[in-house]
Request: fold
Amino acid sequence: MRKRTAYFKDRLLSKKWLVILIVGVILTVFGRVIDNKALTQSGIVVGIGIDYRDNLYDVTIQAVAVDGGAGSDKGSTNFLTYSAKGKTISDAVNSLSEKLGLIVSLSHCNLVIMTRSALALEPVRTFSALTKPLALPEQALVVATDMDVGKVFASKIPSTENVSFFLQSVLLQNLGAGGLTSVSVKDYLAMRCSRSGGVMVPYLELYEMTDKPISSQPSEDKNFVIDLNKNLVINDKGDMVIDETTAKSANMFLSKDVKDKIAVPLKNGGVVEFRVIKVSSKTKVEGMKVVCEMKMNVSFVEAQGFDTPLVLNCNSPEVLDAKNTLEQMLADDLESCFLLSKQCGIDFLGLENLLYQKHGRHLPQNCFDQILFEASYSVTVTENS
Amino acid sequence: MNIKSRFCQNPKTTTLYNSQVGALVMICSVAYKLSSLPSIVNEYMASSTTWLFVLLTVVDTLSFVLVYAFFHDGGDEELSSNKAYKIGLIFLALFLGFKCVAFFSFAVLFFTVELYVGVPHVIVVLILIAPVVYLGTKGCSTLARTAEIFVFMVFFVVVLNLAFLEADLDVNRNLPVFSMEPKDFFAHSLRYGTWLGNCFPLLFVKVKNKKLPYVSSSYAVTQILTLIVVFFGVAMYGDSMKIIGNLLVEISGFNQLSTEIGRMEWTALFVVIVSGILELAFLFYGVSECSNRIFGCKLVLQIALPMVAVLSCTIPRSPQVVADLSHQRIVGGVMAVFSLILPIYFVILKWKNRRDYLSKFNYVREKKEVTK
Reply:
């Protein structure tokens, strides 16, 4: 009996158990000393908007509030929009935490809507304030707008009801036309900090629906439609809104995943429609000139307005004629895109980056005006798929 | 057994299997090189970041080859009573001690800035110092066994984070190679000497080889993985990599699985914390062994170094002061020079010792033959 007691005493006081006891004490002390907020005290924010006016940051958040207790069948999700102003972003977010009654956490926020004035601020400092102390994921999408951010978030979208989810769905799945682009916080910063300094972000406009949706539960709420066909191009010197055609050309050059249909009108009155399957670009730098060879695979969709009884296919002369016209059209659009970028002084095609990668430190600073650009398109038509 | 006999024992060279050495090499080369260093380098080097890491890898490999040449057959045992060796160990203790203090400040900053915002530094310092001192005091065998437990997890987390990486990459962001004049590039690269020589505490071990070449393959795999991670980091972030706190954690956030199961940074967090603590403990072990050989007692530096680490993080206004000091031009340059000179010095000492022993042995043999 004595031997057994001595054996268990030795085991208890052996080093292994002593270490475990010390670790337990340290962790307990650590846990009591740290004021770690519980998850139920954090507000889940799905979208954040930032405006900058009169030297104040106007921050709007769209937070999720779930109604209904445990076991309840009638739980519902409400989206609450709050706005607050502050001298810094964190100052404004603190005010929002007071209004919300919860600690604002951007860990689940995948959308940042910024006005032009907010985007014109120094990007690294602006976004560091979101990603570091507020834990905004760097995968969050950046969208530009000139509208009141609070009104944007408060708008009702018939399909998803919620602006944040609608935008994330459209941008991540590329459900728009060819001009639609999606830019994450990481990519925005990478492009703004690069030699070119220019970046293209989706530009949001909101229109009220004229015809109300037909619903079994009619409501007097206004419904809105979001238009993302235009893009905003921005650099340190300024910004500009570009139209859909220019945005599409730029997207194709930047090898974004462009899914679009292109209707090619011909001189004889006929129109041939192609669906874009794949676009790739190959660039060569020759001195200060960038030569771009674009390759596009399209599928023939339909042809209208042709005076022929034959069924047209991808080898028909009419379709091949449309293909040649398309090649010229796309090359002209891309060169117009370049001229526009030079006109506004915003290198959103990233041409200066290409020159810098080739010439290195020998490339003179602010040489965008001296850059030349030549584009050609090669289109391959496949059968309707 | 009193305290003096417990802690002030004769210096002993620990024998490790080469697989254990390989595990230590992998874990202790990943932590701080892939956490804090990439963003610090990118601030000055921009697109040349990856190429600077290539240069650091070449220098590190050279010093590792020399260190391996010293320790693989017990160089420490042979030179234990050599005065010149003890002088070299003084500089080694200073080198490893400064590395330990600098990395400790980076670890404290990581915990207080990236993880627990608003926590007083003192709390994190006291929590962190305990496992580091404990593991370092237990010795290299304990460190090696602990490394063996975690090495596969560290390896697979890094590899799987790269395999499942889903982000917009532009590999051309790694160009041009020299974003500045080559002479400025090489002069500037001296700043990062503090991140060299992570494997120097292996000078106090002896290797027992198993069949497979674990040490060389582990070292090669680690360096290749490091370069791949940095390459992808620059391809993802370009010149904006300067704003990120920890590259390993950020890369793990861009994961294909994050849309299914949520944010995946926790996988890299685990790797960073485990390997960070092990590396600190390994450096602490190196300093205690230097102390044992210089002063005849481990306790001297085993008490001094933790005190310096704690005070350096608590007395200045922030651990950022020490962190910034670690990549100043002069400090970094001195550390870079030591990272090459010290292994060369030890290898030359070992070679000279063996040559003197052999010449003495030949003299005695010749004398015996003459007598016959």
Q: What stands out?
A: The first strand of chain A starts at residue 42 and ends at 53. Chain A has a mean pLDDT of 84.
